Amino acid sequence: MQRAMRLLEAVASREHGAPAKQLAREAGLALPTAYHLLRTLVHEGYLRRDKGLFFLGEAAERLSSSGAQQKRRSTVSDALAHWRDSIGAPVYYAIYRDGEIEVMCIADTPGNPAVEEWADFRETGHAHAIGQCLLSQLDEKARRDHLDRYPVQSITPYTVRDNDSLLRRLERTGRMEPVIERQEYALGTVCAAIPITAGSTAGTMAISLPSHQAGRLLPAARQLQSEIGRMLGTLAISISI
User: Fold this and answer.
1) In sequence order, what DSSP letters do the residues of the chain get, joined into one string?
2) How far is CA 165 from the centre of its chain?
3) Residue 130: how many CB atoms within 10 A of its CB?
4) What are the angstrom distances between the C-alpha of 60 and each of 57, 71, 237?
5) pTM across the whole model
6) In terms of DSSP bridges, do strands 91-97 and 53-56 run parallel, antiparallel, or are they unpaired?
7) Which end of the chain is more exposed for a tag (fewer CB within 10 A), N or C?
8) What is the maximum span of the chain, computed from C-alpha positions, in angstroms?
9) Any residues with CB less than 8 A from the CB of 203 and at least 6 apart, and which?
10) 56 forms bridges with which residues in the sheet?
């Protein structure tokens, strides 16, 4: 296993491929042993051979991609936990993908619990700050498509009343302004969401607070926005976990 790994590492360091003799030398292996292992790695899909040169195969690239994805998930999770502790509020990360709202990660504590998903977040994007923030980043056609599938419905006495009212509100939302929602999704809770866009993916980081702490909401949202700005370079690669 160790010898095969040394060969894989040698191939990975050669973007334009390398012949067996060179790989054997770099991995510190006898040529017959290297040939045997290389054939096995090609058969298993970890390497591919082209005109006498060896390159990483699909199986190795899948492993690499999976590892990178885990690292990206860890980066976002660590960032959310840091902000949760520094702001003193649950922090959420969500994206809009394939026409759906996806809450990817939540960092909370027993003392500051996340909002209970008592009505499906995907179907109630009109009612919570996360959904409103994501919808505000879409073009009008995509917004209307979403509302055709998930029309506005009253969840609390504070929920926006109809599709047109929501569309007007979204139209007025400033491009990088926090989206504020007060008890529209859950009574006793206020939320703020910060827009994040990486490439064509609409994303958001959000916080929630008990309604008696509503005065903290906007300052906390500004703090989150400032901290996201400092880390955006790191998070940009992680945005589409």
Assistant:
1) -HHHHHHHHHHHT-TT-B-HHHHHHHHT--HHHHHHHHHHHHHTTSEEEETTEEEE-HHHHHHHHHHHHHHHHHHHHHHHHHHHHHHTS-EEEEEEETTEEEEEEEE--SSSPPPP--S-TTTTTTTSHHHHHHHHTS-HHHHHHHHHHS----SSTTS--SHHHHHHHHHHS-TTPPEEEESSSSTTEEEEEEEEEETTEEEEEEEEEEGGGHHHHHHHHHHHHHHHHHHHHHHHTTTT-
2) 29
3) 30
4) 6, 17, 21
5) 0.68
6) unpaired
7) N
8) 76
9) 93, 94, 95, 96, 134, 195, 196, 197, 239
10) 47
Side-chain-facing half-sphere of 188: CA atoms under 13 Å: 4
pLDDT single digits (tens) 170-214: 999 887 889 999 999 999 999 999 998 666 788 999 999 999 999
Contact 125, 99 (CB under 8 A): no
* 5-16 per-position pLDDT tens digit: 788 888 887 778
